[in-house]
Automatic annotation (TrEMBL):
<feature type="repeat" description="TPR">
    <location>
        <begin position="229"/>
        <end position="262"/>
    </location>
</feature>
<keyword id="KW-0175">Coiled coil</keyword>
<keyword id="KW-0007">Acetylation</keyword>
<feature type="domain" description="Signal recognition particle SRP72 subunit RNA-binding">
    <location>
        <begin position="543"/>
        <end position="599"/>
    </location>
</feature>
<keyword id="KW-0256">Endoplasmic reticulum</keyword>
<dbReference type="InterPro" id="IPR019734">
    <property type="entry name" value="TPR_rpt"/>
</dbReference>
<feature type="coiled-coil region">
    <location>
        <begin position="97"/>
        <end position="152"/>
    </location>
</feature>
<protein>
    <recommendedName>
        <fullName>Signal recognition particle subunit SRP72</fullName>
    </recommendedName>
</protein>
<keyword id="KW-0832">Ubl conjugation</keyword>
<dbReference type="InterPro" id="IPR026270">
    <property type="entry name" value="SRP72"/>
</dbReference>
<feature type="compositionally biased region" description="Low complexity">
    <location>
        <begin position="627"/>
        <end position="644"/>
    </location>
</feature>
<feature type="compositionally biased region" description="Basic and acidic residues">
    <location>
        <begin position="575"/>
        <end position="596"/>
    </location>
</feature>
<dbReference type="GO" id="GO:0006614">
    <property type="term" value="P:SRP-dependent cotranslational protein targeting to membrane"/>
</dbReference>
<comment type="function">
    <text>Component of the signal recognition particle (SRP) complex, a ribonucleoprotein complex that mediates the cotranslational targeting of secretory and membrane proteins to the endoplasmic reticulum (ER). The SRP complex interacts with the signal sequence in nascent secretory and membrane proteins and directs them to the membrane of the ER. The SRP complex targets the ribosome-nascent chain complex to the SRP receptor (SR), which is anchored in the ER, where SR compaction and GTPase rearrangement drive cotranslational protein translocation into the ER.</text>
</comment>
<dbReference type="InterPro" id="IPR013699">
    <property type="entry name" value="Signal_recog_part_SRP72_RNA-bd"/>
</dbReference>
<dbReference type="Pfam" id="PF13181">
    <property type="entry name" value="TPR_8"/>
</dbReference>
<feature type="compositionally biased region" description="Basic residues">
    <location>
        <begin position="563"/>
        <end position="573"/>
    </location>
</feature>
């Protein structure tokens, strides 16, 4: 367009200006070219070529909004046929993706440039099937230096399908010669769950990236690390999925320290760190959540990524006891995705934290009624809440209402366990019966005629029989065991169980059935006796219990009962031990149990310490001793009896008295302890 500007220019000043525009365009100086174009438009304001050049200069300078304004202002001159690509590109860069799609589709002629942009728009709209078809058409019908970029975009579409739509990616036959292709291939493998293979691809991508960037002398090590950040982030994600959370966390934090300019990458890493922290390290999570709120994040990530971040924000609000914020976020998520289960579960969890269990169950029940497709998962959560409340029977009723899970072995096991806990054996047996009947009906609908029962069906019958035997329902167990034996008459274990059950109910029948047991000869085990005796455990027992022979026997007879005596360690004697003095024969007995024990010595002031009620005195004990007065009644003294004591007697006021048994000083107490320690000798 700029090359054509010189041909469109007139004489004089206009020609010079067009020449300047052309020269600046070739040099990449679009700011200066824009000034010249504006001067041309002053001469001729409706010049189509000048307007086109102005739009291009604005786009090259990154002024997409201003460029779109010029296009919309001059719609009569700049028709869709003339400037469709530039308009769609501006809308795409301004994140008006739906408008860009309409502009492309309304263009009368689909040029190669529009097709390239169409593929990008479809990718942003997450219409991956249409996008894949668009890029295949471009690769098939284009031959230029951008073929490698188109293949990279094609592989990115396949990776997105594998990751977000769980579509099995087809082999495109692309040679993974660049690190971008390797990276996209690794993402596709992650979507399939092939984590080890994906990690190998990422390591190869890292190596190719280093090789590619190190060839440029202007690229620094910091630039290389910044480019590798997205690869390292995906490696950390694989580590997290593999349960290597410490390694993943370390790598995530290393990427954050690099401060990459990609806000989308930072938001994903911050979100993943929050999921590792869970309800721990909440302060760190609150700092990381700020990275997910950066400007432009919503245009860098897919809808599912943004949704996951919002879910985690709601959970973090719940963990940090921000109840109102949690309710607000979860309600917003539910309005955006009414059929999604997680917002309702978050709301129910918040209600449970507030001890509103009944309200939480009601909320879940309403959602289950409105969305039958998610009813099973909701009812499982409701049952869990009922169990937490101690309402096991109600939990069982909820679980039994999930028709699609009634026959599953895990559900049967859970129900039987809970009913057994509640000692409701009849209901537990009913659960077994319903599950067995379901398998019988299913088998009848799938096949014609008699056919052996499935392993799951037989396993349920056996478990039912064992349960009935355990709880004394022998007759009911016998019918189950007979059914099992009928299916496999060679099953000796089932036959033995059947005979054991009949022996308690019908001994004659048990005798008849016992004839079907194999003979003892056929039941004999082929055991290598020598090998068994030479085993480690058997050798030890044989040596210990076996008879002595030969020289050992004679030696044993000669020695009699003499045994080797173990050397005893010399006992430690006390420091004050005197060998001339005979030790006390009662030294091993406690001091209180020895014959010469007379009790502890009483303190000098012990007689002066009162043992009566608070405020009473003990002075003049002889006068207060009731045992010396024959006429003293056996009742306690009156509270005022102490007032009769003479004021001249040696009375110690209650505040100056010491409590009974209290040591006079700390030193005396330590001396007593030392004496007690030496009392044994």
């Amino acid at each position: 367009k700029m090359a054509a500007a010189t041909a469109a220019g007139g004489a004089g000043a206009a020609a010079a200006l067009w020449s300047e525009v052309n020269r600046c365009g070739q040099n990449g100086d679009f700011a200066r070219a824009l000034k010249s174009v504006n001067k041309i438009l002053q001469i001729s304001k409706d010049d189509v070529t000048a307007l086109q050049c102005k739009v291009v200069c604005l786009i090259q300078n990154g002024n997409f909004k201003e460029a779109l304004g010029v296009i919309n202002t001059h719609t009569k001159v700049l028709t869709s046929d003339v400037i469709a690509f530039e308009k769609a590109y501006c809308e795409y860069r301004l994140n008006r993706i739906e408008n860009a799609l309409k502009t492309i589709q309304s263009a009368s002629q689909q040029t190669d440039k529009l097709k390239e942009l169409y593929g990008q728009v479809l990718y942003r709209l997450e219409r991956y099937d249409d996008c894949l078809a668009a890029y295949r058409d471009l690769i098939r019908n284009s031959q230029d230096e951008y073929e490698e970029e188109r293949k990279t975009n094609l592989s990115a579409v396949v990776a997105a399908q594998s990751t977000w739509e769980k579509v099995m990616p087809e082999d495109l036959g692309l040679r993974e010669a660049t690190y971008e292709l390797c990276y996209n291939s690794a993402c596709a493998l992650i979507g399939q769950g092939k984590l080890n293979e994906a990690m190998k691809k990422l390591r190869k991508a890292e190596e190719l990236c280093r090789q590619s960037l190190s060839e440029d002398s202007d690229v620094t090590e910091e630039d290389i690390e910044a480019e590798l950040a997205i690869i390292h982030g995906q490696m950390a994600y694989i580590m997290q999925l593999q349960g290597r959370t410490e390694d993943a966390l370390q790598l995530y934090n290393q990427i954050i320290k690099l401060k990459p300019t990609d806000v989308g990458l930072l938001a994903v890493i911050a979100n993943n760190i929050i999921t590792i922290n869970k309800d721990q390290n909440v302060f760190d999570s609150k700092k990381k959540v700020k990275l997910t709120n950066a400007e432009g994040v919503e245009h860098k990530l897919s809808k599912k990524q943004l949704q996951a971040i919002e879910f985690n924000k709601a959970l973090l609000a719940m963990y940090t006891n921000q109840a109102d914020q949690c309710r607000k976020l979860s309600a917003s998520l539910q309005s955006q995705s009414p059929e999604h289960l997680l917002p309702v579960l978050i709301q129910a969890a918040q209600l449970c934290r507030e001890k509103q269990h009944a309200k939480a169950v009601g909320l879940l029940q309403d959602f289950a009624d409105q969305h039958p497709a998610s009813a099973a998962e909701i009812k499982l959560t409701m049952a869990q809440l009922k169990i937490a409340q101690g309402s096991v029977t109600k939990a069982c009723m909820i679980l039994r209402s999930i028709e699609e899970l009634q026959h599953k072995p895990g559900m049967v096991s859970a129900l039987v366990t809970m009913y057994s806990h509640e000692e409701d054996i009849d209901s537990a047996i009913e659960v077994f019966t319903q599950a067995i009947q379901w398998y019988q009906q299913f088998q009848a609908s799938q096949t014609r005629g008699a056919k052996p029962k499935s392993p799951v069906h037989l396993s349920l019958i056996r478990e039912a029989a064992n349960f009935k035997l355990k709880h004394g329902r022998k007759k009911e167990a016998i019918s189950d065991l007979e059914e099992l034996w009928k299916q496999n008459p060679k099953d000796v274990h089932t036959l033995a169980q059947l005979i054991s059950a009949y022996s308690l109910v019908d001994p004659e029948k048990a005798k008849v059935l016992s004839k079907h047991l194999p003979s003892s000869d056929t039941m004999s085990l082929k055991v290598d006796v020598d090998a068994l005796e030479n085993s480690h455990g058997a050798t030890y027992v044989r040596k210990k219990a076996g008879k002595l022979t030969g020289d050992n026997q004679q030696k044993e007879q000669g020695q009699g009962d003499v045994k080797k005596k173990k050397k005893k360690k010399k006992g430690k004697l006390p420091k004050n031990y005197d060998p001339k003095v005979t030790p006390d024969p009662e030294r091993w007995l406690p001091m209180r149990e020895r014959s010469y024990y007379r009790g502890r010595k009483k303190g000098k002031k012990k007689d002066q310490v009162g043992k009566g009620t608070q405020g009473s005195t003990t002075a003049g004990s002889s006068e207060l001793d009731a045992s010396r007065t024959a006429s003293s009644p056996p009742t306690s003294p009156r509270p005022g009896s102490a007032a009769a004591v003479s004021a001249t007697s040696n009375v110690i006021p209650p505040r100056h008295q010491k409590p009974a048994g209290a040591p006079a000083t700390k030193k005396k107490q330590q001396q007593k302890k030392k004496k007690g320690a030496k009392g044994g000798w």
